[in-house]
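Its record is quoted verbatim for completeness.
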Amino acid sequence: MAQTVNRATDLMSDNARRPKTNLQLPTSAKYFFTALVIGLLLLILAMGAKALRDAPPAAIQVSTQGLTAAQHQTLQQTMGQQPVSSFFTTNLQALRDIAMGLAWVDQVSVTRDWQQGIVITALPKQAVANFGTERLVDARGAVFVPVDSEELTRSQFATLQGEINQAPVIMQQMQQINDWYAPLDMRVEDIILTPRMTWLVRFDSGLRVIVDNENTAQKLLNLSQLLTNQLSTRREEMQSIDLRYKNGFTITWKVVEPKAEVSE
């Protein structure tokens, strides 16, 4: 038994003393295989680039969601005229910028879809008032020409007038006036900001108000309070009110036609 253990120990010692054999490739073979791998990678890249260049142009689809028929047709025609490359190489941001360039477009999303191609989803601006006679304006004061001219005939819209770059200011002023005069059941029907920064306001009740650009908000707020209290019983008799005074205002009263006498 002791001899067997000793022999096993000797064998293990012999194995431990034997030098390990390492298979080493010649340097030239290493260079060859490295060059082969690099060549294959370059070939794959070149073939991929050629495939992208030779791929047919991507199809552009405009979603109908949220658009009228006229808006969809206009956007589809505009985007269909744009040069596009393949499905993978088409510049989506460039297409989005083109769609956003249409004044009536409010938001745009451009995505890749395996089945449809390049899909463009757009939302139009929502008009809340007319701006002059040929444009509309949204709640943020953005002025735009609608696709369908019939949108300009909405009688429920108030009309804003002034310089286009002043549209946000005019819109904000109208919204503020409507808030102040809502308890009087009065809403702005027309509001004009002249080049001299004079405000002309006509309410749906027929009352017209003119005010300058000095303490405009305070004057209009004070007037709403006077019409609610001291002048409440005579509102129907007023034709116009001029607030362009530092310490007061003037009222133009409606002319009451005398009743004709009827002889029997």
